[in-house]
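Example record for the data management plan.
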Amino acid sequence: MKHARESKALSRMVDLRQQGFTLLEAMIAAGVLSVGLLGLAGLSGMSLGKNVDANDMSRITNLAADMAERIQNNRQRVLDYHGTATNMACPQSVSTQRMAWGDCTQWSTLVANSGLLSAVGTVSATRLDPDPTANPVTMNRFLVTVTLNWQTRKTDVSTSRSKTAAFTTVIAPE
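Corresponding structural encoding:
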């Protein structure tokens, strides 16, 4: 009988210890879960910032491709586009370089309305081969570089910074 009472008391103590241990396990699991969720929250903020950067880069690529296609379309007059910059008046003459002037004004409007902060586009065109008037045996190729500068947006996880993207292509008249 004495043995039965001791056995019951011992089993109650074991039960009480097991109940407390289960509570302790639950508290530790909640702590581990909260640390994991905080890490996940930080990653989602960084992911949002990277998505904004990717969106900006898509816009920049489209703007550069647009100007490169305009120049390719007017490839007999590539040098007319040299010095084009969206932050100043178009350098082309309205009377003698009408197509290049129209492309410059339209592209300036596209860059200004792109939704990018402080976006500025420039075009540089240089001759790769000798001038065909001086040397009739030439490919008459031009290296065209379209450069765009803009400011990124300040977010919770990043600061505003200046970015530049330069796109180059070789254009040869037919």
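Summary line stored alongside the record: Residues 52-171 form one domain.
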